[in-house]
Amino acid sequence: MLKRILSALTLAISLNALAAVDVNDAALADLDSIKGIGPSTSAKIVEQRKSAKFKDWADFIQRVPGIGTKRATKLSDEGLTVNGQAFKGTDAASTAKVSTNKPSEKTTKP
């Protein structure tokens, strides 16, 4: 009987560990529980979330410093979601690219 109770408890804990953590609803401790997110990144996420919830992965990547497509993929694999959605790779990230308005090469006037 005790074995069954322990088995059930272990299973419940395992399933809870695999549960997704949504970036828009998670507390600091929940974010810290994701492998690859530490206190500094958690604080950045919560700070950015104060202004507005993240719309999608592209918005998340754009607003949180240090998060790119490679890291987003790893965090998603660890259970992080944005609005319940896992990161889908380069499709989601392509809209996250911030345009850089670099000045064109100098032109000389005649």
SSE map:
Elements: H1 2-17, E1 21-22, H2 28-32, H3 39-51, H4 57-63, H5 69-77, E2 80-81, H6 90-94
In whole angstroms, the N-to-C terminal distance is 92 Å
Poorly predicted runs are: 11-17, 98-107
Share in helix = 40-55%
Largest sheet: number of strands, sense, barrel closure: 2 strands, parallel
Structural class by secondary-structure content: mainly alpha
Q: What general form does the structure show?
A: globular
Arithmetic mean of pLDDT: 80
Which sequence of strands runs across the widest sheet?
1-2
- Beta strand count: 2
Q: How many helix segments?
A: 6
C-alpha-based Rg, rounded: 20 Å
Question: Which strand-content bin applies to the residues?
Answer: under 5%
Order of helices and strands: HEHHHHEH
Please characterize this protein's 3D structure.
With 110 residues, the chain is mostly helical. 50% of the residues lie in helices and 4% in strands. The chain has six helices and two strands. The protein has a two-stranded parallel sheet with strand order 1-2. The longest helix has 16 residues, at 2-17. Mean pLDDT is 80; it is low at 11-17 and 98-107.
